[in-house]
Amino acid sequence: MLKKNSKTFLLSFLLITTPFIQFIHTNVTELTFYYIDIIKLYVLILLPAFLIIFFFYKKNHIFLYLSILFFLIFQFKNINLYLNDSLSFVVILILFFLIIFSLKKIYFERFFIFFLSFNILFTSIHFFYTTFKSTNLISNKQEIRDISLPTNHNLYVVIVDDMISIKDFEKIYSVDLNEEVNEFELLNSKYINGTYLSSNGTTENISNILNLNEINYNIQQFKFRFKNLNYLMNNPQKSLLLNHLKNNQYDFKFVGSSFIDCYFFNDEYCLNEKKISFINFYVIDNFLKATPFIIFRKYLKNKVKENNKFNYLNTRYKELFQHNDAIGRLLKFKSIEKKEGKTFYLVHHYSPHDPHFFNSDCSFRNKILDVNWSIEQDYKEGYKLAYICTLKKIHSLLKYIKKYEPNSIVIIQGDMLTNSEITEYYFGSTPATGYFGDYYKDSKVNNFSLLTTINNCKNENFAYISNIEVLKKFLTCNAKKNKIK
Prior knowledge:
Layout: H1 2-26, H2 31-55, H3 60-73, H4 76-80, H5 85-102, H6 106-132, E1 155-161, H7 166-173, H8 178-186, E2 189-191, H9 202-211, H10 219-222, H11 225-234, H12 240-247, E3 251-255, H13 281-288, H14 293-306, H15 312-324, H16 326-336, E4 343-349, H17 375-404, E5 409-415, H18 421-427, H19 431-435, H20 439-442, E6 449-452, H21 467-477
Parallel strand pairs: 1-4, 1-5, 3-4
Antiparallel strand pairs: 2-6, 5-6
């Protein structure tokens, strides 16, 4: 009896573990960011499972049946590739009863144990191979000599995610933002026309900033962009920027968003903040994509919206609203410490990127809580409001800098997916290309770019170069001695 219980427990354990192994295999290139969250997710699932074992020990076949069902539910996405939703459910039910029936035969039970064990072993080997395989694309041919930056001056590089140039925004929405541009000049800043992004998304862009050079990924290398960013963040000596900052006694702080933040890498890079949630909802969402949850998600979301007394979405969205407002979080932190210093702030402000939580006055956009709201129908209006709010956030930051840190260096740059072979392969058409129609097809869209002017770069021309070239050139002309080559 004990031997039988042991086999049942082992098989149940393998059945529960396999979906996590499949998830790891599918998302191996992102695990450098999210492995802690995946472990938490695994424990959250396994703990209830062990409680079930405890309560149903004398009826351990119940636990086995639940484990089989759990395993099959996570095969739904694979089955759904070939069959419609209804037939996929039917196939899962048929497989459920077939497995239960076949497990009555000892050789089938042994086969399942062997097959699942082999699958876990193979995937684990592949995971460790991929993890430790050298995929670093960072070139060390470029060298940074000692650059003497202004002493006791902070440096700010702010990424405003998905923010197109003012010129492109004016054309798409038929508006005039000259007044906003003039306000920037009154705050000792200059808007730059014609700059463009040198990367295929945020992760690659941050790697380029840390490398102070453009990393040229091909389609196969692009999937390792998370790993390469993690490599740079955790090996400052390999990052041209971080190495340079260290040599010049600068601290480094990364103020991120729900998409990417300091605690993904090193707590020392964080401001005095705690991680917002116990587990990353991005991880949960991707984990559940293999299940029928993707079908019920919209239905459940609308039900939650309708049942306001639970107030779940309201709470969750307002958490994201605050977390994605990286400029606001930075200013809140700086309001406590009004002093100049030697810190490099890399800020990822997750707006005007969707979902658009911000009204034009930067208040929370309650419209997205409406049962009938959809991003497809609301994208263009939501983007416009978020864009105007982001301009106001930038204005607030520059106002603070002018008042409390007039000699600090500030670079603010847009960051959006560009139309390329890589983005088409990995992401398909981007939201902007879909919702802004033919404008993206007929025009080369530039990114937002703004620099402070109280520095040594007043006579430099920054137009019509990439965001990384702007950054390098701006740091170079602010240096007192040698230059970045």
